[in-house]
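Anyone up for a design puzzle?
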């Protein structure tokens, strides 16, 4: 997929190659950005900025990793930068909304839209480090070694983060949604 002709066309500024780059990786990056940020508009902005930065820096891409891994690293750095800037701006005294309404029956709870909402809310309640590894591993299908390269930590740290993130999700999600016991 990442043949030298494609990379050379990107480096030359070939518009068709830029479009192919977006076609190949846009949806996958958007899904990850949405899971990381929890906001569709923010995810769109992150992906657009990722491609703009990648196209601007393509001449510095050495090809030591897959193109997706390189793009995801840019996306992750942009997300972290955005998150750091929000920490300085947003403070609230209110308590978070409960994940489950006590009056919901289990039949309603297992509705696909409700399950999706619950999982998304649970993901957003994880720490940024835990959310990153969950998204990379379960949604993008990356190995522990690949994740370690992207987030720039050791494989042991990735394994630890995955373990604690899964434990947090088990506590956050209703028992009927936890298929692993």
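Challenge accepted. My sequence:
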């Amino acid at each position: 997929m990442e043949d030298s002709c494609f990379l050379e066309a990107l480096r030359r500024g070939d518009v068709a190659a830029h479009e192919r780059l977006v076609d190949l990786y846009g949806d996958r990056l958007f899904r990850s950005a949405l899971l990381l940020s929890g906001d569709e508009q923010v995810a769109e902005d992150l992906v657009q900025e990722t491609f703009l930065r990648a196209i601007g820096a393509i001449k510095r891409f050495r090809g030591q990793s897959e193109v997706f891994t390189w793009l995801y690293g840019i996306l992750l750095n942009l997300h972290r930068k955005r998150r750091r800037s929000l920490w300085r701006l947003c403070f609230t005294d209110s308590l978070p909304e409960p994940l489950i309404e006590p009056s919901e029956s289990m039949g309603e709870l297992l509705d696909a839209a409700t399950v999706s909402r619950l999982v998304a809310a649970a993901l957003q309640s994880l720490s940024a480090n835990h959310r990153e590894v969950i998204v990379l591993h379960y949604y993008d299908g990356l190995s522990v070694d690949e994740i370690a390269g992207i987030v720039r930590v050791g494989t042991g740290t990735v394994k630890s983060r995955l373990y604690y993130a899964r434990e947090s999700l088990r506590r956050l999600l209703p028992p009927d949604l936890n298929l692993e016991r």
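A detail worth pointing out: The chain is about 70% helix and 0% strand.
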